[in-house]
Specification:
This protein has 319 residues and is an alpha+beta fold. It is 27% helix and 29% strand. It has a single domain (40-313), classed as Ribonuclease Z/Hydroxyacylglutathione hydrolase-like (Metallo-beta-lactamase, Chain A), CATH 3.60.15.10. The structure holds zinc ion (ZN). Zinc ion is lined by residues 143, 145-146, 246, 292-293.
């Protein structure tokens, strides 16, 4: 078939597709908008459906990484076929659906970090889930790229959701005393966290240790990045998925060199130790993980590689 013939026959094919399947082609987004059409991917964990949702990306300044020379960092980026300039760190959230329940693990950024982010509500709408249907918003920690999206115009975006957060993070991020002692560029994060606590009011549930978060979901304390940073273990039947929050921010570097930390870590040493422990305990076990800053959809496995580790993505899933 000549190229021209193929092109002219395409609309008719689309019409036929719609007529026979009920599928309507999605209108193309504006060229150069940076938005992919597909921003969600569903995975099954036993009887539970987990959907990775892309909130967008942060152009992460790599100067925020600590404990590695610029030369070593450039070398790791080259090995990963990545450009270190304007590294696009994914921001992912995860929708967990069990029976009729809809639980959201982290809320994305909302309008806190600019135009390359804030897509979680749009993706939820595309999935057919209204904000009012989210019954739990479980947060891994109280940083803006995880809770900014809990608010819309300062009010709770999820009007029926219980906000589930560790008591340690609540104690830290709601403290005006700690805020006053924090470096100036960190203080806004406390205002945001306090705004979220205020907006959810008495729909706040504080947890600690390996708390039951919801049927099939238990907390996994992973402290260091924040004092109360936690993962969420999703278990159903013989299957499980550890949603590890911010164990890794820059995969091309920190998978290989887990001791490399990031300036946003509240406790650098503890964050590095937690990451090293998590990698060591997961490598080769076949335990699936999902990460908020792993390349979207962020689901895969930790494998040993040389002196460090590597991330093996699960790839596209057909349900
Ligand atoms: Zn984060």
């Amino acid at each position: 078939m000549k190229r021209r013939t193929f092109l002219t026959s395409l609309p008719a094919a689309s019409v036929a597709l719609a007529a026979t399947t009920g599928l309507v082609p999605i209108a193309a987004s504006a060229a150069g908008s940076g938005t992919q059409v597909v921003a969600a991917q569903k995975f099954k964990v036993g009887d539970i459906v987990v959907t990775a949702i892309s909130d967008g990306y942060i152009a992460l300044p790599l100067g925020a990484l600590q404990g590695i020379s610029p030369e070593n960092m450039a070398d790791l980026f080259a090995k990963a076929h990545k450009d270190p300039n304007g590294f696009q760190a994914a921001v992912n959230a995860y929708l967990v659906q069990s029976g009729d329940e809809n639980w959201l693990i982290d809320a994305g950024t909302g309008n806190v970090f600019g135009p390359t982010l804030g897509d979680v509500p749009k993706v939820l709408a595309a999935l057919g889930v209204a904000p009012s249907q989210i019954s739990k918003l479980i947060v891994t920690h109280m940083h803006g790229d995880h809770i900014g999206g809990a608010l819309a115009d300062g009010a709770a975006l999820y009007p029926n959701a219980e906000l589930v957060v560790t008591a340690a993070d609540h104690g830290f991020w709601s403290s005006r005393d700690i805020q006053a002692q924090a470096p100036e560029n960190f203080r806004g994060g406390f205002d945001l966290a306090i705004g979220v606590f205020d907006a959810y009011g008495d729909r706040l549930r504080l947890v600690k240790d390996e708390a039951d978060l919801a049927p099939g979901l238990t907390a996994r304390p992973l402290p260091g990045h924040t004092v109360g940073h936690q993962g969420v273990m999703v278990e159903s039947g013989n299957d499980s998925l550890l949603i590890w929050g911010d164990v890794v921010h820059v995969a091309p570097v920190q998978m290989v060199r887990p001791e490399v930390t990031i300036g946003f870590d509240t406790d650098q040493d503890m964050a590095a130790k937690t990451r090293a422990d998590v990698f060591a305990s997961l490598a080769g076990t076949g335990q699936k993980i999902a990460g908020m800053h792993m390349p979207f959809p962020g689901v895969g496995y930790v494998e040993k590689a040389g002196d460090g580790y590597r991330f093996e993505p699960v790839g596209w899933q057909y349900l």
